[in-house]
Write a structure and sequence with these properties.
Chain lengths: 490, 490
């Protein structure tokens, strides 16, 4: 039978209790749950990529639909890395296998290639009752975890990966929050500190706020293409020790816009990586190159998802994490903790499997898969270049090369008068800028203040995902707007 | 480009810092993350339905596969409400629409009925870039929230439901934890207390422990078919006030094994409900029947998911919650909070839509849908009856009628000697019983102690989901085991 579960504030219980005692109608108390009585940590959470500017963008879209006249015809959302929403097409093979898993009657359909059918059969055999509608184990479907481990092992040139160290997750965010949760302890000066890069992705600051941990900022060097200076990491760590217990170092690899701090850190060498899709320097591999003292001791958790790269399958919420050198007792606690949510979505798990176990040479879907993947990655590389080139022609905008992700974080020079007007309004100056941009052009970007930036500098973050023709229009509109804005406030 | 994000304990940072300063190899500190230094609340979390007994069951399954001889040939898992894993077939219409959403090329295939295609087109039109791989809004796809609101409105005989009050969730668990998180505040005597029924579903105790809230037990009356006595609710509330701030009352409706406390509470009347699938008394409707003072003031959050009832689609992690009378500022905080996880899985959202917007009379899929749904519900009703009947023939087992869910929670009488032996082993007596049952028969049940029970009473929880013939075998094996166990320890 169906269930409908309720959790509600006890004003009710209170009142009913009073009613029972006195047998008369009593006025109810005011709200049980108010901003004054709610979880204080939740109030501190900020999440810029879905913040006020995006809410306004959604409103403007509604107004446009209702026929309200605007100086533009559509809102271009470059606020979040949502590839399919920007017109990127899903990889055919992935969707074929997913359809087969969902509706296995299609396994009899000769329109589907044999390799897609084989993958689907294999996944279904690992599901309870051969249904993707069954709960999976909390750590994730066995064969998927094995495939992930094999993938990591290939990626790292044979360095072993143990399926027992793989946890499938609901997107990468879920895994990151889970690990931070495990690590959060202590009070006051012993409270867990979490080192994050500035600029950061706001998931980190939001989770740290929600958990009541301490956020420790280390600043990336914008002048050196957002690289990490060791002295800055050192400064940040030392400063943090005065008021908390720094226990976690978060790094985004490859850049977002963060580069390759770990490798440059121990070796004091630098190597550049170029825009090449999913290629990157694995931290785990670096640990193994540093020798057994490191590879057998350093605790490392790394995360990946189906949402980014050439896949862009955000809606499926597929992801994994690999934890190495985790204390076995803590790992048991981790497994227990993830079991409370029962399991990550099974379709997301299946999709993650396809990402790590894609068509191989000789299989019927191989050619199409390679072509589709190459097309997406070349388009991204082209758009990355386009973004950098056009933005750098604008006086007052400076944009580092977009090297390894789908985002750019250009710096903008704002006139003093604009900064003052924003401050008078109680707005961050780059929020003021982005809000005006949205109202006048329909372009939705996120102010740099939502990601963090050095005091006195201003940025915006934009994805490079809109289709090339639309991206060009957008960049040129942005150019025009910036010039007008600068004139207006000079 | 691809990203791989890492969060790792700072032993690394520590060491590297030392290395930089001294330019020599230093031994690494011990583990940063140990059971002594981890989040203390997480350690307190227990989750019986995926606890030690289930881990042992998984192990036994592996042993059987490896050819280890056992007194049984397979493990029968009746520990969790995982319908498809127990052989229940998915509803054809649901899976057809999901396959169409996943691989829209199938929209040209004339094997799929028109109503399935129309549903799929409508869902895809609400998705960014017409792809179920795009992020949805954090609150959930617009048209799905509208359909949920309409469904609730129909369910409650026209009492209005506002789509703005609907939040789609990753299964019901996600919504429940989110609401409890919002409500958790205060310290010591002002710490939020959460009233939960005993027996409970362990998600509640686990979430309360993780959030560091205070668990307040109210005991259901086993003698009266697990109904709720008002005096018990009163006792529980008053006792709780001595040490915390009781702010939330959690109720499971219909029974699991909880009955209909809300209705019986204000009205002091009782009405019986029978095994009828999804039919139940809506708390919201009751509030409206009580008049505007209640319907406009009492804060209520209710939850539903695709996992239970005739659907049994657990793996998709679809769910929704409706919040009524929530303070608008708090609601803004809720929306912000859910946005940190970006969105619930889009396939789960789509599936939720189909549940609330199933085939209608006259549509091509209607007949099949009704037949499939009826078959599942009749089978459940039959199995509920079977379970009660067989178990009640066993001296020392007493089983209430299974009325509104897929679980039963029979009471078992254990011999004094068995209780003592368990205690000597440091085990709960019903864990001792269930572990023996598993080792000797392959039947995996969950001890009552994982759900809570009155001191000195012992139970197990079993689902009634195994196929009828297997359920019969299981119940008879259970009977035999109980008799043997009782003899052995008498």
């Amino acid at each position: 039978g169906g269930q409908n579960r309720s959790a509600f504030p006890a004003a009710q219980g209170e009142h009913l209790h009073q009613k029972m005692s006195e047998n008369g109608a009593l006025p109810l108390r005011g709200k049980v749950l108010t901003v004054d009585t709610m979880n204080a940590n939740v109030k501190k959470v900020d999440y810029a990529v879905r913040g006020p500017i995006v809410q306004r963008a959604v409103q403007i879209e509604k107004e446009l639909k209702e026929g309200v006249k605007k100086p533009f015809e559509e809102v271009i959302k470059a606020n979040i890395g949502d590839a399919h929403a920007m017109g990127q097409r899903p990889i055919t093979f992935f969707r074929q296998v997913m359809a087969l898993c969902t509706y296995p009657q299609l396994l009899d359909d000769n329109k589907f290639p044999e390799d897609a059918k084989n993958r689907a059969r294999r996944i279904l055999q690992s599901c309870g009752g051969n249904s993707i509608g069954a709960y999976t184990t909390s750590q994730g479907i066995d064969c998927v975890r094995h495939d992930v481990a094999n993938y990591i092992q290939r990626r790292d040139g044979g360095i072993p990966s143990d399926p027992d160290n793989i946890y499938l997750t609901t997107g990468a965010s879920d895994g990151i929050v889970t690990i931070l949760k495990l690590l959060t302890a202590g009070e006051g000066r012993t409270r867990t500190g979490v080192m994050i890069s500035i600029p950061q992705y706001p998931l980190y600051s939001a989770s740290i706020a929600e958990l009541g941990a301490v956020q420790i900022n280390y600043y990336l060097n914008e002048e050196k293409c957002w690289s990490l200076d060791i002295s800055e990491l050192q400064r940040s760590l030392q400063a943090a020790r005065e008021h908390c217990d720094p226990r976690v170092l978060c790094i985004i690899n490859p850049g977002n816009p963060t580069g390759e701090p770990l490798r440059s850190f121990p070796y004091k060498t630098k190597s550049n990586y170029i825009y090449k899709g999913c290629e990157f320097h694995s931290f785990k591999k670096v640990l193994f190159e540093m020798g057994p003292e490191y590879s057998s001791k350093v605790e490392l958790a790394s995360f990946h998802s189906t949402s980014k790269c050439y896949m862009g399958e955000c809606g499926f919420r597929g992801g994994y994490m690999e934890v190495i050198n985790m204390d076995p007792e803590v790992k048991a606690q981790l497994t227990k903790l993830v079991s409370v949510r029962l399991c990550p979505p099974a379709p997301g798990q299946a999709l993650m499997d396809l990402v790590v176990n894609s068509p191989q040479p000789g299989e019927p879907s191989y050619q199409t898969f390679i072509k589709e993947r190459t097309d997406v990655l070349s388009a991204l590389a082209e758009k990355a270049k386009l973004t950098e080139e056009i933005l750098n022609t604008v006086p007052g905008i400076s944009c580092n090369p977009v090297q390894g992700a789908m985002y750019s974080f250009p710096r903008i020079t704002l006139p003093e008068r604009a900064i003052n007007e924003a401050k008078a309004k109680g707005q961050a100056p780059d929020m003021f800028y982005c809000m005006k941009l949205l109202e006048e052009t329909g372009i939705c970007l996120v102010p740099g203040s939502g990601f963090g930036q050095r005091e006195g500098t201003y940025h915006f973050r934009m994805t490079i995902l809109p289709p090339t023709d639309k991206l060009k229009i957008m960049l040129n509109k942005l150019k025009e707007f910036h010039q007008k804005f600068t004139q207006q406030y000079s």
